[in-house]
UniProtKB/TrEMBL annotation:
InterPro entries in the record: Hypoxia_induced_domain, RCF1
Gene Ontology CC terms: mitochondrial membrane; nucleoplasm; protein-containing complex
Keyword Transmembrane: yes
Membrane-traversing stretches: 27-45, 65-84
Designated name of the protein: HIG1 hypoxia inducible domain family member 1A
Keyword vocabulary terms for this entry: Membrane, Transmembrane, Transmembrane helix
The keyword Transmembrane helix is annotated on this UniProt entry: yes
Gene3D superfamilies: 6.10.140.1320
UniProt lineage: Eukaryota, Metazoa, Chordata, Craniata, Vertebrata
HIG1 domain: residues covered: 1-93
Length: 93
């Protein structure tokens, strides 16, 4: 068993920052979904004290649905973007 000379170990040589940047370039909508989720959760916590006479459980369910909806939407748009990049925008040989 000989080692293949074409195999690159560059993925092991990269640091955390360059790996994060590479992953963001590969799937740009994942960090957007995560940021949107965090923003909705922060907004929900901010509005928690001024929710009026709404029950706590109803408020939390609304925030959960909004956050999940944003993440699912970002993932769907990201999937469409990657399909476009892979199948339609790919240069033909």
């Amino acid at each position: 068993m000989s080692a293949d000379p074409d195999v690159s170990l560059s993925s092991y040589d990269e640091d955390q920052g360059s790996k994060l940047i590479r992953k963001v370039r590969e799937a740009p909508f994942v960090p957007i979904g995560m940021a949107g989720f965090a923003a909705i959760v922060a907004y929900g916590l901010y509005k928690l004290k001024s929710r009026g006479n709404t029950k706590m459980s109803v408020h939390l369910i609304h925030m959960r649905v909004a956050a999940q909806g944003f993440v699912v939407g970002a993932m769907t748009i990201g999937l469409g973007y990657s399909m476009y990049r892979e199948y339609w925008a790919k240069p033909k040989p």
